[in-house]
Amino acid sequence: MPNDAVLKAHGIKPSLTRMMIFEYLKTAQKHPNVDEIYQALQSRIPTLSKTTVYNTLHLFTEKSIARAVMLKDQENRYDLAAHPHAHFQCLHCNEVFDVAMMPDFDLNQLMPNHEIQDVSVLISGVCETCKAKEAAQKSS
Amino acid sequence: MPNDAVLKAHGIKPSLTRMMIFEYLKTAQKHPNVDEIYQALQSRIPTLSKTTVYNTLHLFTEKSIARAVMLKDQENRYDLAAHPHAHFQCLHCNEVFDVAMMPDFDLNQLMPNHEIQDVSVLISGVCETCKAKEAAQKSS
DNA sequence: ACTAATTTTGTAATGATTACAACTTAAAAC
DNA sequence: GTTTTAAGTTGTAATCATTACAAAATTAGT
Fold first, then answer.
1. A55/B132 Cα distance (integer angstroms)
2. Least CB-packed of A6, A29, A75, A97 within 10 Å?
Protein backbone atom coordinates (compact mmCIF):
# COMPACT_ATOMS: atom_id res chain seq x y z
CA MET A 1 0.00 0.00 0.00
CA PRO A 2 1.47 3.40 -0.97
CA ASN A 3 2.20 5.84 1.81
CA ASP A 4 -0.60 8.26 1.05
CA ALA A 5 -3.10 5.42 1.12
CA VAL A 6 -1.85 4.33 4.54
CA LEU A 7 -2.29 7.84 5.89
CA LYS A 8 -5.73 8.24 4.36
CA ALA A 9 -6.78 4.85 5.71
CA HIS A 10 -6.06 6.20 9.19
CA GLY A 11 -7.90 9.46 8.62
CA ILE A 12 -4.81 11.59 8.09
CA LYS A 13 -4.64 14.00 5.20
CA PRO A 14 -1.44 13.06 3.38
CA SER A 15 0.41 16.36 3.20
CA LEU A 16 3.90 16.33 1.81
CA THR A 17 5.49 16.85 5.22
CA ARG A 18 3.49 14.02 6.74
CA MET A 19 4.34 11.69 3.89
CA MET A 20 8.02 12.36 4.29
CA ILE A 21 8.00 11.86 8.04
CA PHE A 22 6.07 8.65 7.55
CA GLU A 23 8.51 7.52 4.86
CA TYR A 24 11.42 8.30 7.15
CA LEU A 25 9.93 6.26 10.01
CA LYS A 26 9.35 3.42 7.58
CA THR A 27 12.79 3.26 6.04
CA ALA A 28 15.11 4.44 8.82
CA GLN A 29 16.81 1.44 10.35
CA LYS A 30 16.62 2.92 13.84
CA HIS A 31 14.28 4.40 16.39
CA PRO A 32 14.69 8.09 15.72
CA ASN A 33 13.92 10.80 18.18
CA VAL A 34 12.38 14.10 17.21
CA ASP A 35 15.69 15.79 16.59
CA GLU A 36 16.96 13.00 14.36
CA ILE A 37 13.87 13.17 12.20
CA TYR A 38 14.16 16.94 12.08
CA GLN A 39 17.85 16.86 11.10
CA ALA A 40 17.32 14.16 8.51
CA LEU A 41 14.53 15.96 6.68
CA GLN A 42 15.77 19.51 7.00
CA SER A 43 17.79 19.35 3.78
CA ARG A 44 14.78 18.19 1.79
CA ILE A 45 12.24 20.43 3.57
CA PRO A 46 14.22 23.59 4.29
CA THR A 47 11.34 25.34 6.05
CA LEU A 48 10.64 22.39 8.36
CA SER A 49 10.11 23.25 11.99
CA LYS A 50 10.60 21.05 15.01
CA THR A 51 7.10 21.89 16.16
CA THR A 52 5.78 20.31 12.96
CA VAL A 53 7.68 17.13 13.72
CA TYR A 54 6.16 17.07 17.20
CA ASN A 55 2.70 17.81 15.81
CA THR A 56 2.99 15.11 13.18
CA LEU A 57 4.23 12.47 15.60
CA HIS A 58 1.43 13.28 18.02
CA LEU A 59 -1.03 12.93 15.16
CA PHE A 60 0.51 9.63 14.05
CA THR A 61 0.39 8.32 17.59
CA GLU A 62 -3.20 9.40 18.05
CA LYS A 63 -4.20 7.73 14.79
CA SER A 64 -2.22 4.61 15.70
CA ILE A 65 0.24 4.51 12.84
CA ALA A 66 3.18 5.20 15.14
CA ARG A 67 3.84 4.80 18.81
CA ALA A 68 6.15 6.25 21.39
CA VAL A 69 8.80 3.85 22.59
CA MET A 70 9.59 4.21 26.24
CA LEU A 71 13.30 4.02 26.84
CA LYS A 72 15.56 4.67 29.75
CA ASP A 73 17.17 7.77 28.30
CA GLN A 74 13.96 9.57 28.91
CA GLU A 75 13.66 10.96 25.45
CA ASN A 76 10.85 9.80 23.27
CA ARG A 77 11.75 7.69 20.28
CA TYR A 78 9.25 6.53 17.74
CA ASP A 79 8.66 3.65 15.42
CA LEU A 80 5.79 2.46 13.29
CA ALA A 81 3.04 0.60 15.09
CA ALA A 82 2.66 -1.86 12.24
CA HIS A 83 3.95 -5.10 13.74
CA PRO A 84 3.93 -5.37 17.51
CA HIS A 85 7.35 -6.08 18.92
CA ALA A 86 9.44 -5.58 22.01
CA HIS A 87 12.55 -3.44 22.31
CA PHE A 88 15.96 -4.33 23.54
CA GLN A 89 18.21 -1.51 24.67
CA CYS A 90 21.88 -2.21 25.24
CA LEU A 91 23.12 -0.56 28.40
CA HIS A 92 26.63 -0.27 27.00
CA CYS A 93 26.31 1.08 23.46
CA ASN A 94 22.75 2.36 23.94
CA GLU A 95 21.60 0.80 20.68
CA VAL A 96 17.99 -0.28 20.42
CA PHE A 97 16.91 -3.44 18.63
CA ASP A 98 13.54 -4.88 17.84
CA VAL A 99 12.76 -8.27 19.33
CA ALA A 100 10.50 -10.48 17.24
CA MET A 101 7.57 -10.64 19.62
CA MET A 102 6.64 -11.68 23.03
CA PRO A 103 4.33 -14.66 23.36
CA ASP A 104 0.90 -13.30 24.14
CA PHE A 105 0.30 -13.22 27.84
CA ASP A 106 -3.21 -13.98 28.92
CA LEU A 107 -3.72 -10.46 30.12
CA ASN A 108 -7.47 -10.54 29.98
CA GLN A 109 -7.42 -13.33 32.49
CA LEU A 110 -5.01 -11.46 34.73
CA MET A 111 -7.05 -8.26 34.55
CA PRO A 112 -10.58 -9.28 33.68
CA ASN A 113 -12.38 -5.94 33.96
CA HIS A 114 -9.77 -3.72 32.37
CA GLU A 115 -9.69 -2.62 28.78
CA ILE A 116 -6.21 -3.22 27.46
CA GLN A 117 -5.14 -1.00 24.61
CA ASP A 118 -1.40 -1.40 24.46
CA VAL A 119 1.48 -3.41 25.89
CA SER A 120 5.04 -2.11 25.83
CA VAL A 121 7.93 -4.37 26.63
CA LEU A 122 11.41 -2.99 27.15
CA ILE A 123 14.24 -5.42 27.69
CA SER A 124 17.57 -4.06 28.80
CA GLY A 125 20.94 -5.69 29.08
CA VAL A 126 24.13 -6.09 27.07
CA CYS A 127 23.96 -6.81 23.35
CA GLU A 128 25.79 -9.47 21.38
CA THR A 129 28.32 -7.03 19.94
CA CYS A 130 29.23 -5.47 23.28
CA LYS A 131 29.54 -8.88 24.89
CA ALA A 132 31.91 -10.02 22.15
CA LYS A 133 34.01 -6.89 22.56
CA GLU A 134 34.26 -7.44 26.29
CA ALA A 135 35.27 -11.05 25.83
CA ALA A 136 37.94 -10.05 23.34
CA GLN A 137 39.38 -7.47 25.72
CA LYS A 138 39.53 -9.90 28.60
CA SER A 139 41.42 -12.54 26.64
CA SER A 140 44.00 -10.09 25.26
CA MET B 1 14.89 -7.53 57.41
CA PRO B 2 15.15 -4.03 58.88
CA ASN B 3 15.67 -1.16 56.43
CA ASP B 4 19.26 -0.43 57.37
CA ALA B 5 20.18 -4.07 56.85
CA VAL B 6 18.62 -4.00 53.38
CA LEU B 7 20.65 -0.95 52.44
CA LYS B 8 23.84 -2.40 53.87
CA ALA B 9 23.25 -5.68 52.07
CA HIS B 10 23.29 -3.72 48.82
CA GLY B 11 26.42 -1.79 49.67
CA ILE B 12 24.66 1.43 50.61
CA LYS B 13 25.59 3.28 53.76
CA PRO B 14 22.30 3.68 55.63
CA SER B 15 22.17 7.41 56.28
CA LEU B 16 19.01 8.81 57.81
CA THR B 17 17.92 10.44 54.57
CA ARG B 18 18.40 7.25 52.60
CA MET B 19 16.52 5.21 55.18
CA MET B 20 13.58 7.57 55.03
CA ILE B 21 13.43 7.60 51.25
CA PHE B 22 13.64 3.82 51.27
CA GLU B 23 10.90 3.62 53.89
CA TYR B 24 8.72 5.95 51.85
CA LEU B 25 9.14 3.84 48.72
CA LYS B 26 8.30 0.76 50.74
CA THR B 27 5.16 2.02 52.40
CA ALA B 28 3.70 4.47 49.90
CA GLN B 29 0.84 2.82 48.08
CA LYS B 30 1.72 4.48 44.80
CA HIS B 31 4.52 5.04 42.34
CA PRO B 32 5.85 8.37 43.49
CA ASN B 33 7.86 10.71 41.31
CA VAL B 34 10.75 12.74 42.63
CA ASP B 35 8.60 15.69 43.56
CA GLU B 36 6.13 13.56 45.49
CA ILE B 37 8.91 11.99 47.52
CA TYR B 38 10.40 15.41 48.12
CA GLN B 39 7.08 16.94 49.22
CA ALA B 40 6.26 13.98 51.45
CA LEU B 41 9.52 14.03 53.37
CA GLN B 42 10.07 17.76 53.53
CA SER B 43 8.13 18.14 56.78
CA ARG B 44 10.23 15.48 58.49
CA ILE B 45 13.55 16.49 56.90
CA PRO B 46 13.25 20.27 56.66
CA THR B 47 16.65 20.73 55.01
CA LEU B 48 15.96 18.10 52.35
CA SER B 49 16.95 19.07 48.84
CA LYS B 50 15.53 17.74 45.60
CA THR B 51 19.03 16.98 44.40
CA THR B 52 19.40 14.60 47.32
CA VAL B 53 16.25 12.79 46.27
CA TYR B 54 17.63 12.47 42.75
CA ASN B 55 21.01 11.34 44.06
CA THR B 56 19.46 8.77 46.36
CA LEU B 57 17.18 7.34 43.70
CA HIS B 58 20.07 7.05 41.28
CA LEU B 59 22.04 5.26 43.94
CA PHE B 60 19.14 2.94 44.73
CA THR B 61 18.69 2.18 41.04
CA GLU B 62 22.37 1.52 40.55
CA LYS B 63 22.41 -0.81 43.53
CA SER B 64 19.24 -2.51 42.35
CA ILE B 65 16.96 -1.85 45.27
CA ALA B 66 14.72 0.41 43.21
CA ARG B 67 14.00 0.85 39.56
CA ALA B 68 12.68 3.53 37.28
CA VAL B 69 9.25 2.83 35.90
CA MET B 70 8.80 3.98 32.33
CA LEU B 71 5.46 5.63 31.89
CA LYS B 72 3.86 7.67 29.19
CA ASP B 73 3.81 10.93 31.10
CA GLN B 74 7.50 11.17 30.54
CA GLU B 75 8.34 11.74 34.15
CA ASN B 76 10.23 9.11 36.03
CA ARG B 77 8.41 7.29 38.75
CA TYR B 78 10.02 4.75 41.06
CA ASP B 79 9.15 1.66 42.98
CA LEU B 80 11.07 -0.98 44.81
CA ALA B 81 12.66 -3.65 42.65
CA ALA B 82 11.77 -6.34 45.18
CA HIS B 83 9.17 -8.41 43.32
CA PRO B 84 9.14 -8.17 39.55
CA HIS B 85 5.80 -7.00 38.22
CA ALA B 86 4.24 -5.22 35.29
CA HIS B 87 2.51 -1.85 35.41
CA PHE B 88 -0.87 -0.87 34.18
CA GLN B 89 -1.51 2.78 33.50
CA CYS B 90 -5.06 3.97 32.97
CA LEU B 91 -5.29 6.40 30.08
CA HIS B 92 -8.31 8.09 31.63
CA CYS B 93 -7.51 8.66 35.31
CA ASN B 94 -3.74 8.20 34.89
CA GLU B 95 -3.56 5.88 37.87
CA VAL B 96 -0.87 3.22 37.88
CA PHE B 97 -1.45 -0.29 39.20
CA ASP B 98 0.85 -3.22 39.66
CA VAL B 99 0.00 -6.37 37.74
CA ALA B 100 0.88 -9.64 39.47
CA MET B 101 3.49 -10.82 37.01
CA MET B 102 3.98 -11.72 33.44
CA PRO B 103 4.66 -15.37 32.68
CA ASP B 104 8.33 -15.68 31.97
CA PHE B 105 9.04 -15.44 28.29
CA ASP B 106 11.82 -17.59 26.99
CA LEU B 107 13.91 -14.56 26.24
CA ASN B 108 17.18 -16.41 26.25
CA GLN B 109 15.94 -18.51 23.40
CA LEU B 110 14.73 -15.46 21.48
CA MET B 111 18.01 -13.63 21.99
CA PRO B 112 20.64 -16.26 22.63
CA ASN B 113 23.77 -14.14 22.71
CA HIS B 114 22.45 -11.19 24.66
CA GLU B 115 22.75 -10.66 28.35
CA ILE B 116 19.35 -9.73 29.72
CA GLN B 117 19.35 -7.66 32.86
CA ASP B 118 15.85 -6.30 33.07
CA VAL B 119 12.43 -6.52 31.47
CA SER B 120 9.87 -3.74 31.81
CA VAL B 121 6.29 -4.27 30.82
CA LEU B 122 3.89 -1.37 30.60
CA ILE B 123 0.27 -2.10 29.87
CA SER B 124 -2.02 0.80 29.05
CA GLY B 125 -5.74 0.98 28.68
CA VAL B 126 -8.80 1.84 30.73
CA CYS B 127 -9.10 0.65 34.32
CA GLU B 128 -12.02 -1.09 35.97
CA THR B 129 -13.16 2.05 37.80
CA CYS B 130 -13.12 4.27 34.73
CA LYS B 131 -14.95 1.66 32.69
CA ALA B 132 -17.64 1.40 35.35
CA LYS B 133 -18.03 5.17 35.44
CA GLU B 134 -18.42 5.28 31.68
CA ALA B 135 -21.00 2.54 31.71
CA ALA B 136 -22.96 4.37 34.42
CA GLN B 137 -22.95 7.58 32.42
CA LYS B 138 -24.14 5.88 29.27
CA SER B 139 -27.07 4.23 30.96
CA SER B 140 -28.27 7.40 32.68
C1' DA C 1 40.55 17.32 67.91
C1' DC C 2 42.31 16.77 62.87
C1' DT C 3 42.11 15.18 58.42
C1' DA C 4 39.97 12.90 54.78
C1' DA C 5 36.07 10.96 52.72
C1' DT C 6 31.28 10.91 52.20
C1' DT C 7 26.80 12.97 52.13
C1' DT C 8 23.80 16.74 51.47
C1' DT C 9 22.52 21.12 49.71
C1' DG C 10 21.42 25.25 46.55
C1' DT C 11 21.92 27.50 42.33
C1' DA C 12 22.46 27.60 37.67
C1' DA C 13 22.43 25.25 33.22
C1' DT C 14 20.55 21.88 29.96
C1' DG C 15 17.36 20.09 26.93
C1' DA C 16 12.99 17.90 25.55
C1' DT C 17 8.44 19.18 25.24
C1' DT C 18 4.44 22.30 25.00
C1' DA C 19 1.67 26.71 24.37
C1' DC C 20 0.34 29.85 21.37
C1' DA C 21 -0.25 33.11 17.90
C1' DA C 22 1.12 34.29 13.27
C1' DC C 23 1.62 32.77 8.79
C1' DT C 24 0.91 29.89 4.79
C1' DT C 25 -1.22 26.62 2.02
C1' DA C 26 -5.15 24.01 0.46
C1' DA C 27 -10.16 23.24 0.04
C1' DA C 28 -15.00 24.91 -0.28
C1' DA C 29 -18.44 28.21 -1.39
C1' DC C 30 -20.12 31.35 -4.22
C1' DG D 1 -11.55 32.45 -10.34
C1' DT D 2 -11.96 35.27 -6.44
C1' DT D 3 -13.42 35.10 -1.71
C1' DT D 4 -14.00 32.71 2.48
C1' DT D 5 -12.99 29.20 5.56
C1' DA D 6 -10.48 25.53 7.36
C1' DA D 7 -6.27 22.93 7.88
C1' DG D 8 -1.42 22.72 8.10
C1' DT D 9 3.02 24.76 9.25
C1' DT D 10 6.19 27.77 11.51
C1' DG D 11 8.94 30.44 15.18
C1' DT D 12 9.37 32.19 19.67
C1' DA D 13 8.82 31.94 24.29
C1' DA D 14 7.59 29.34 28.40
C1' DT D 15 7.59 25.08 31.20
C1' DC D 16 9.50 21.60 33.74
C1' DA D 17 12.18 17.37 34.83
C1' DT D 18 16.76 16.39 35.13
C1' DT D 19 21.75 17.24 35.57
C1' DA D 20 26.22 19.70 36.66
C1' DC D 21 28.80 21.51 39.93
C1' DA D 22 30.86 23.49 43.78
C1' DA D 23 30.11 24.77 48.54
C1' DA D 24 28.62 23.32 53.03
C1' DA D 25 27.71 19.89 56.43
C1' DT D 26 28.21 15.54 58.31
C1' DT D 27 30.53 11.24 59.34
C1' DA D 28 34.51 8.10 59.94
C1' DG D 29 39.44 7.09 60.67
C1' DT D 30 43.70 8.32 62.83
1. 33
2. A29
Q: Within its chain, how far is the Cα of B18 from the centroid?
A: 16
Q: What class has domain A83-140?
A: alpha beta
With cut-offs at 50, 70 and 90, classify the pLDDT of residue B138: low
Break chain A into its structural domains and give their ranges: 1-82, 83-140
CB-nearest to A113 from B110, B121, B131 is B131
pLDDT in tens, B26-41: 888 778 889 999 999 9
Q: In terms of Cα–Cα distance, which of B91, B60, B115 is closest to A115? A: B91
Q: Which positions in chain B touch A73 (Cβ < 8 Å)?
A: none
B127 close to B93: Cβ distance less than 8 angstroms: yes
Say if the Cβ atoms of A118 and B105 lie within 8 Å: no
Q: Is the pTM of this model over 0.85?
A: no
Which residue from B minimizes the CA distance to A113? B128
**With respect to CATH, is domain A1-82 assigned 3.90.76.10?**
no
* Residues with Cβ within 8 Å of residue B125, at least 6 apart in sequence: A114, A115, A116, A117, A118, B88, B90, B91
> What value does the mean pLDDT take over residues A60-89?
75
Strands (E) located in chain B? 66-69, 77-80, 86-90, 96-99, 115-126
Show Cβ contacts of residue A66 under 8 Å, excluding neighbours closer than 6 positions: A25, A57, A60, A78, A79, A80, A81
* Topology of the domain covering B1-81: Arc Repressor Mutant, subunit A (1.10.10)
Chain-chain contact of A70 with B68 (C-beta, under 8 angstroms)? no
